């Protein structure tokens, strides 16, 4: 690969089979501390609602909890689903976090609700077209965090002057256009929606307009990553990820399941083919294999600046080890 990559982690705060909500949050903190010790750049927490296998509903509270139990790693949202929230409240919350914890806060922003439409209706402050208002609401956040001299009558105290960095998240080409036009960092969700990844990355880099934030594009890619000592062990551990994906497709969300020896035996033929395809779009294997996969990724999709890794592994120790091996693979 042509340049050194920054490496970060995303956590959806899943509940493992047989574990409680509290144990899932404790595991979230232990993983944050582990990747901090490894020298990861940032640790982001997702936002999802009405999903019994995830505890990432009150994202800003989990970010605060994580910041309190770490020392130096950047902690942020991957992302705050802006249609669910008034920008004023988001600015107040993240301005408060920045006041307490200083320059360790990231605010990743998504334009989807992160849930089903009935739940989205229950979440929203009104029935506004949140997706369509996303560009304007991003601009509102930039203003709330900006200089006091440019603030409107309604101010998001204590956000003014905090300059909390914003990141545009996307799983389609729409957000690529927005991030490019506003000159903001762009994060593509390749871990669950890789279909438009190449086109979105090309659009962002080609149409990028320099801003007071960035002189040139800053491309971040989120991928599933499962690394072990051997390819065979990694493939075995990755059957947990496959079960997570299939449970979502089935609409029967379940806690994170242990790996299985024979994935084909518990899936329909169509589900098994989908699982194999997703595996091929993930980083799965030994350090040497994953290094080759990263090189092949850049040959296909183009260069990127930062990798954000998601790792669905049932065994917590093996998950921590996977993040260690991934860092070694990226640095080798």
From TrEMBL:
Q: Which GO terms describe its cellular component?
A: cytosol
Q: Which residues form a coiled coil?
A: none
Record's InterPro entries? Bact_Lucif_Oxidored, CmoO-like, Luciferase-like_dom, Luciferase-like_sf
Q: Where is the Luciferase-like domain?
A: 17-301
Query: Membrane-spanning residues where?
Result: none
Q: Which GO terms describe its molecular function?
A: oxidoreductase activity, acting on paired donors, with incorporation or reduction of molecular oxygen
Q: What is the superkingdom listed in this entry's lineage? A: Bacteria
The record's comment on protein family reads:
To bacterial alkanal monooxygenase alpha and beta chains.
What is this protein's record name? Luciferase
């Amino acid at each position: 690969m042509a340049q050194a990559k920054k490496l970060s982690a995303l956590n959806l705060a899943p509940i493992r089979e047989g574990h409680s909500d509290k144990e899932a949050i404790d595991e979230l903190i232990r993983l944050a501390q582990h990747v901090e010790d490894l020298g990861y750049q940032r640790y982001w927490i997702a936002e999802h609602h009405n999903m019994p296998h995830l505890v990432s509903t009150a994202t800003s509270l989990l970010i605060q909890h994580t910041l309190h139990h770490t020392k130096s790693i950047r902690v942020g949202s991957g992302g705050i689903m802006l249609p669910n929230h008034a920008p004023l409240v988001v600015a107040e919350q993240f301005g408060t976090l920045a006041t307490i914890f200083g320059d360790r806060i990231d605010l990743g922003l998504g334009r989807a609700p992160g849930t089903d439409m009935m739940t989205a209706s229950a979440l929203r402050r009104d029935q506004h077209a949140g997706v369509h208002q996303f560009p304007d609401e991003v601009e509102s956040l930039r203003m709330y965090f900006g200089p006091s001299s440019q603030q409107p009558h309604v101010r998001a105290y204590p956000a003014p002057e905090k300059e909390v960095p914003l990141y545009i998240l996307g799983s389609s080409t729409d957000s690529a256009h927005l991030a490019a036009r506003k000159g903001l960092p762009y994060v593509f969700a390749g871990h669950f929606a890789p279909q438009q990844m190449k086109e979105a990355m090309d659009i962002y880099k080609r149409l990028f307009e320099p801003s007071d934030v960035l002189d040139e594009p800053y491309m971040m890619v989120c991928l599933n990553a499962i690394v072990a000592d051997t390819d065979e062990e990694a493939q075995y551990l990755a059957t947990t990820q496959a079960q997570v994906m299939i449970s979502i497709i089935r609409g029967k969300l379940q806690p994170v399941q242990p790996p299985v020896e024979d994935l084909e035996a518990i899936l329909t033929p169509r589900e098994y083919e989908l699982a194999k395809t997703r595996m091929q779009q993930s980083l799965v294997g030994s350090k040497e294999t994953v290094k080759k996969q990263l090189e092949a990724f850049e040959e296909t999709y183009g260069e990127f600046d930062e990798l954000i890794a998601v790792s669905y592994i049932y065994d917590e120790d093996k998950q921590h080890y996977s993040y260690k091996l991934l860092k070694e693979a990226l640095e080798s």
